[in-house]
Amino acid sequence: MDISVKAPAKINLTLDVLHKRPDGYHDLEMVMTTVDLADRIDLTETTGGIRLQSTSGFVPFDDRNLAYRAAVLVKERFGITKGIHILIHKRIPVAAGLAGGSADAAATLRGLNTMWNLGLSMEELAELGLALGSDVPFCVRGGTAIARGRGEQLTPLPTPPPCWVVLAKPPHGVSTAEVFQALKMEKVTSHPNLEGMLHALENQDFNQMCDQLGNVLENVTLEAYPKVRFLKERMATFGANGVLMSGSGPTVFGLVNKESVARRVVNGLRGFCRQVYAVRMLGGLEEGSIE
Ligand SMILES: C[C@@](CO)(OP(=O)(O)O)[C@H](O)COP(=O)(O)OP(=O)(O)OC[C@H]1O[C@@H](n2ccc(N)nc2=O)[C@H](O)[C@@H]1O
Ligand SMILES: Nc1ncnc2c1ncn2[C@@H]1O[C@H](COP(=O)(O)OP(=O)(O)O)[C@@H](O)[C@H]1O
After folding, report:
1. pTM recorded for the entire structure
2. Is 135 a catalytic residue?
3. Is residue 232 flagged as an active site residue?
4. CB distance 278 to 36 below 8 Å
5. Using 50, 70 and 90 to split pLDDT, how confident is the model at 282?
6. Ligand 1, residues 176, 215, 218, 253: which to mutate, most atoms within 8 A of Cβ?
7. Which residue has the CA at smallest separation from atom 14 of ligand 2?
8. Whose CB among 47, 83, 238, 289 lies 3.0–4.6 Å from 285's, allowing a Cys bridge?
9. Number of domains making up the chain
10. CA 53 → CA 67, 103, 196, 291, distances in Å?
11. Are residues 115 and 180 in the same domain?
12. pLDDT, tens digit, for every residue of 134-143?
C-alpha cells in the first residue's frame, strides 16, 4: 500500500518562555496553529530497511532526518521487519521556525500508523513523537492548541478567525538551540497575554488576535539578524494587521483580513525577499490528512 500524508507548517501566535528546566530545556506556553503551507510525505512499503529521498537539497538524507528517525522509532518499537521508502516533497522552508522537520516526522508517524495497522491513538502518536522533537506532538494533531511544557501538554483551541497569513523567510536559517542559549531570562520584561489571545480566539475577534501576538524569543533573533526586524517593519508598512516572528525564527508572518491587502503585502515583500507565501490557517488534521 502507498500512502501520501500532508505535513503542514505551524506558526506561533504567542510564545512565552516560563523558565529553564534542570534538563536544559525550557518550559514554554504557546498558542500554535497549522497553516496551509505543507510538505507531502509519500510512503511506499519495501522489503526491508529505510530509504529516504527529498525534493530539497537542504534536508539531511541520513538518520538526522526527523522523518527517517520517525520510521526508525516505529520499526524498533513495534518490531516491524518490513521496509519503507520515504519521499519528502519539501515546500516548507528549512530551519525557519515553521517546524518543517517536526511536521515531516509527525506525518510519517501518522502514515505508518495507518500503513502498518498499529492502531495508535493521536495521544499515543504524540507521546511517541516527543522523543523526536518538542514540536512533534503538536504536529501530530495540528489545528490550533495551547502547548505547554516542552510542547507535549496540548489543549485544543478554536480555529482562529479566517484571515490570510503572509509568510516571509529571510535567506538564512536559525538554530533553535542557539536562540534558547542566547535567551537571558532576566532580560525578558514583557510576556504575551495568553488570556487575551484565548479571548480573541473564542470570540473570533481578528483585531484582538492581531493585538495579542507576542513571542519572547523574537528579541533574541532580531538582535542577531537585523534583516528579520527589517522584514517585520516592511510587512507592517505594506498593511499587515498584525506581525510577528514565528518560533525561534527567522520567518516573519503577517495576519491580514483582506485579500487585496494580502496581495499588496506579498508583492511589496517580493521586491527584496525571495521566499514569500500567502496561505490560510488550517483546521484540525484528523480528516483529510492522508491523501
Ligand atoms: C521554539 C519552537 C516553538 O514552536 O519552535 P521552532 O522555532 O524550532 O520551530 C519549538 O519549541 C522548538 O521545537 P523543536 O525545533 O522541535 O526543538 P527541539 O529539537 O526539541 O530542541 C532543540 C533545542 O532547543 C532547545 N529547546 C527547545 C525546546 C524547549 N522547550 N526548550 C529548549 O531549550 C534545546 O537546547 C534543544 O536541544
Ligand atoms: N525532514 C526535515 N525537514 C527539515 N529539516 C529537517 C528535517 N529533518 C531534520 N531536519 C533538520 O532540523 C533542523 C530544523 O529544521 P526545521 O524543522 O525545518 O526548522 P525549525 O525547527 O526552525 O522549525 C534543521 O537543522 C534541519 O537540518
Report:
1. 0.96
2. yes
3. no
4. no
5. confident
6. 176
7. 95
8. 289
9. 2
10. 10, 16, 43, 19
11. no
12. 999 999 999 9
